[in-house]
């Protein structure tokens, strides 16, 4: 066979491949060749018509990157599902807050009355050795006394003078004041339930323990002061909103509503994890319910000024609808982009709803360790006492009760609220049982609440079982604490975690994708479990965002 002709471009590539690339320089191609084509061929192919034709007929194949485009399509579907899933969580949380709010008006007075009757009749029965009041009854009596004292103190606050004082300020000053009030409300909510819990525990702590507190009366005075100041703060918020409603050009109301969209900027571009998003969702539920109550107070004050003319109610409806619509729009946009940027599925809102339902179901157990209204306060930061105190103050000052017919109407209205509370509780309990069953969390109902500081013996036994370490080593250096897994769709398993620093435990847990395997003694693999369960997040915090 004769010698086959090899084009110069192939000769160049073959020669470059045979050279030692690491030793010397790769020879350059001939000057009359550019990427394997002669200059004459390039000049002949250069044509505007050929370029336009190539641009019009150029094709590409999306199936070559199927995984990428499938992921993008799923992101779109996730964003479309967010409004529905978010509103289902918001609706469920709204009725939970409503149940805790109605409890203050309906069942709490009856429970306080029963506790006082027991307190008065028990010494007559000569039952020696038994407690005068149960711990739950002590907490109810304390709540009742706090409400009575704060209500008597609220009579010294002039709502009309506060309204005219705020109305005399400029628009920009009122805008700054409203932002400061929102921030102060969050700070009060984050610390208020701690004050109330400290009072309840101080009053019901077993007496045989060593005294490690300042006394019940100082704690009670602190709680009264907190509830009164928080009620005043909410009153100023309602007054500022009322001034915005009654302004002629509605400029203040527009500025206040546009302030909600600033919340998107402060939240969307931060790193969020599932637990952080859970805290934000609870905060949004509390904020939405509080705004509804503030709108109710504004409507009551305006209707009183217009002698309860129903025509004026239609004048307020557009502004009320604008406030509600802006809240819903901001929440939907905020959660949609947070889940998009952090790759959080829409099913996570079902887990949040199941966690809230678990609180309700566990509070109905015989061995429950907290009241549900307090559980809602710890979970969402919604403390119903100051808000209920303000609503009672506004209603009693706006509605005049005169005559037997008025008293009958008040009694019928009270019975109607009790009926609403009972029906709402029954429906919520039924839906909560369904959510807990769907999330496979029934077995957690029979577990004891997680202990913050485990005993030395149980920690040593746990260490010796899982890590085969000697029992004589220090607990602080090698303790393994078992943690309940999150209610996700992954199979649940018993996990252990290695000791971490306090700074790690202050923040929330990383996602499941960030859980790495750790090698211990070179032989055994131990999976790191999440540091925090959704059920363990019972503290409302405004610092739920971790910025990396």
Protein architecture, described:
With 548 residues, the chain is an all-alpha fold. The chain has a domain of 252 residues. Strand 5 and strand 6 form a beta hairpin. The protein is globular, with a radius of gyration of 33 Å. The C terminus is likely disordered.
**Strand arrangement, largest sheet?**
1-2
Helix content: 55-70%
pLDDT < 50 stretches = 18-23, 451-531, 539-548
Number of helices: 19
- How far is the N terminus from the C terminus? 69 Å
Structure, briefly:
The chain crosses the membrane at residues 141-157, 220-245, 382-399, 405-423. Keywords: Chondrogenesis, Membrane, Osteogenesis, Transmembrane, Transmembrane helix. By secondary structure, the chain is mostly helical.
Please give the structural blueprint.
Blueprint: H1 8-18, E1 33-34, E2 37-38, H2 39-45, H3 48-57, H4 66-105, H5 107-125, H6 135-154, H7 159-167, H8 171-204, H9 216-246, H10 251-268, H11 274-305, H12 310-341, H13 348-363, H14 372-380, H15 384-398, H16 404-438, H17 456-466, H18 475-478, E3 481-482, E4 496-497, H19 502-506, E5 517-520, E6 524-527
Antiparallel strand pairs: 1-2, 3-4, 5-6
Helix pairs in contact: 4-11, 4-12, 4-13, 4-14, 4-15, 4-16, 5-6, 6-9, 6-15, 7-9, 8-9, 8-10, 9-10, 9-11, 9-15, 10-12, 11-12, 11-15, 13-14, 13-16
